[in-house]
């Protein structure tokens, strides 16, 4: 894995464990020589993640929509900050740069990004790993809903099993690196588009 895309909040959250997990992941990626692709902000969990990677020599690329340059306060210390026209363009740009995707705790924006990348994988638009860093059980209610989707016939078990979930960064990155995508479910699924 050359680059990992991490989705997380532009706010810090109320639990110090969220910031600590973001920092741990940033340092770990830098130590393993894995570049970080993220939302480009210098505040919240995004800023903690990027700063931790940069402090130990990590390669960090930010992608931020022009409309959020002031609200999310773009990070000025990155090797590269790509400014795009929309949220959709941001997700597409991040997807093209990364070899895998992880969501940390966050709000609706984080979940939007996570679900889009996970769905693109299910549709065969990419064959990259998608994971959740489940800090303090943050994602347990979401995982219960996903399990209900499987039980009620809305999601194939193979896609649930392909989702990588760990509560510590080192285990998560190891599993992402070893990922083998499930076989496509639809005959004639489109080839990987770089998305």
Task: Itemize the secondary structure elements and their pairings.
Blueprint: E1 3-7, H1 16-31, E2 35-38, H2 44-55, E3 60-65, E4 80-84, H3 87-97, E5 101-103, H4 108-122, E6 130-133, H5 140-151, H6 157-162, E7 164-166, H7 169-177
Parallel strand pairs: 1-2, 1-5, 2-3, 3-4, 5-6, 6-7
Helix pairs in contact: 1-2
Search tags:
195 residues; alpha/beta
Brief description of this entry?
The protein has helices at residues 16-31, 44-55, 87-97, 108-122, 140-151, 157-162, 169-177, and strands at 3-7, 35-38, 60-65, 80-84, 101-103, 130-133, 164-166. With 195 residues, it is an alpha/beta fold. Helix 4 (108-122) links the parallel strand 5 (101-103) and strand 6 (130-133).
Walk me through what this model shows:
The chain is α/β, with parallel strands linked by helices and 195 residues long. Helix content is 42%, strand content 15%. Strand 2, helix 2 and strand 3 form a beta-alpha-beta unit. Helix 1 packs parallel to helix 2. The C terminus is likely disordered.
Low-confidence stretches: 190-195
Radius of gyration using CA atoms only: 16 Å
Number of DSSP-assigned strands:
7
Content of β-strand:
15-25%
The helix/strand class is alpha/beta
| Biggest β-sheet: strands ordered side by side in the sheet | 4-3-2-1-5-6-7
How many helices?
Answer: 7
What are the secondary-structure elements, in order, as H or E? EHEHEEHEHEHHEH
């Amino acid at each position: 894995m050359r680059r990992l895309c991490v989705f997380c909040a532009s706010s810090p959250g109320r639990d110090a464990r969220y910031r600590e997990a973001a920092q741990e992941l940033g340092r770990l990626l830098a130590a393993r020589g894995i570049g970080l692709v993220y939302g480009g902000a210098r505040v919240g969990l995004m800023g903690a993640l990027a700063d931790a990677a940069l402090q130990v020599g990590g390669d960090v690329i930010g992608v931020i929509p022009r409309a959020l340059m002031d609200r999310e306060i773009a990070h000025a210390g990155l090797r590269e900050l790509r400014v795009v026209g929309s949220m959709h363009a941001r997700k597409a740009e991040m997807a093209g740069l990364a070899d895998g995707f992880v969501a940390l705790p966050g709000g609706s924006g984080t979940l939007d990004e996570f679900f889009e990348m996970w769905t693109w994988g299910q549709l065969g638009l990419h064959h990259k790993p998608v994971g959740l860093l489940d800090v303090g059980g943050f994602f347990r209610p979401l995982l219960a809903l996903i399990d209900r989707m499987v039980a009620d016939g809305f999601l194939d078990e193979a896609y649930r099993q392909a989702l990588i979930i760990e509560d510590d960064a080192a285990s998560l990155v190891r599993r992402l690196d070893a990922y083998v995508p499930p076989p496509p479910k639809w005959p004639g699924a489109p080839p990987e588009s770089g998305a």
